[in-house]
Write a structure and sequence with these properties.
The protein is mostly helical and about 325 residues long. The chain contains twelve helices and two strands; from the N terminus they run H-H-H-H-H-H-H-H-E-E-H-H-H-H. A two-stranded antiparallel sheet has the order 1-2. The two termini are about 25 Å apart.
């Protein structure tokens, strides 16, 4: 199994395509962070942030007086006002205008990791069938299950590799741009009870990474299943990318229906529980984990059954 895994990694990291993806990831982090820093008001260098927070608080206070604003919107505004008060009372600089603004914004590039890993996973099995190299794998002593598992683990490891690159590069680039100022800045947020609390910025960042990383694993598993079932890289990659970007649109249309909470895309974004705004009222993190587990095992079961049972044409 170890030799198979190493062989898959050797094939993956020898390809120019892989390092182009890594370069695009680093370039995207640098460009996004630089633009964020360049257009920043640089309030982190002086005490001007207090005036900015006071202005923002006043704008939200005025917004609360609007009669047509929904109760949910008012509750969200009240939480934000409470956070602003906490910043002012405890003299804590807000995230904006610091290195953490760019670092947390870089976390949105996880969708790029998902895209790249889906491309690699979609081509992993189907590409072997297309080029005929699958027969060279099957004549080895290792059984098909081990071959399948080694390929799958190598895809997940590639996604983790990109995740680490994203984290390290975003820290370094934003740290250099902001001279590592306010590196120990806490995250001011509200808990489930609506109380304002301080949390570790690094811990919250990794929690965001890990929760969003779950969606990467699910999409990779889906692409891997389609690649195994249809032996088509185009179909595996195309369908998975379509699902990645079109899933949110369909969810908006289906949100009024209670049964939509059982759909894959309603549960795939676990970071919705960090913000306290689940897809439907009553949904919990435990519920989404159970639903995702069912899809996860189903996708892997289909991939295993098809790959181990289907005959390979000469």
């Amino acid at each position: 199994m170890v030799n198979l895994f190493l062989n898959e990694n050797m094939k993956l990291y020898r390809r120019v395509r892989t390092w182009i993806m890594v370069a695009i990831m680093i370039g995207a982090v640098f460009l996004g962070s630089f633009m964020d820093w360049y257009y920043d008001d640089k309030s982190g260098e002086v005490d001007a942030w207090r005036n900015h927070v006071i202005e923002q608080k006043q704008e939200l206070t005025d917004a609360l007086k609007e009669p047509k604003r929904s109760a949910e919107s008012k509750a969200s505004i009240e939480k934000q006002i409470a956070r602003y008060d906490y910043h002012l009372e405890h003299n804590i600089h807000p995230e904006g205008g610091t290195m953490w603004s760019g670092i947390n914004d870089s976390a949105h590039l996880i969708i790029l990791i998902t895209l790249f890993t889906v491309i690699v996973a979609g081509d992993s099995l189907a590409g072997e069938f297309t080029t005929g190299t699958i027969k060279l794998l099957l004549i080895r002593p290792a059984n098909r299950t081990k071959i399948l598992v080694s390929k799958y683990i190598s895809m997940i490891a590639f996604g983790l590799f990109l995740l680490i690159i994203l984290f390290v590069v975003s820290i370094l680039v934003n740290g250099i741009l902001y001279k590592f100022g306010l590196i120990d800045l806490p995250l001011v947020t509200t808990d489930a009870a609506g109380q304002v609390v301080e949390k570790s910025m690094v811990a919250n960042l990794w929690k965001t990474y890990l929760l969003n990383g779950v969606s990467t694993i699910i999409f990779v598993t889906m692409a891997f299943m389609i690649s195994s079932a249809f032996r088509s890289s185009i179909m595996a990659i195309g369908f998975s990318i379509f699902a990645l970007f079109a899933g949110a649109i369909f969810l908006e249309l289906l949100q009024p229906y209670e049964w939509s909470k059982y759909l894959l895309f309603a549960n795939i974004d676990l970071s919705q529980y960090l913000s306290g705004r689940p897809y439907q009222t009553g949904m919990t993190l435990q519920f989404s984990i159970i639903v995702l587990s069912i899809y996860f095992f189903t996708f892997n079961l289909v991939a295993w059954l098809v790959f181990t049972k289907r005959d390979v044409a000469a």
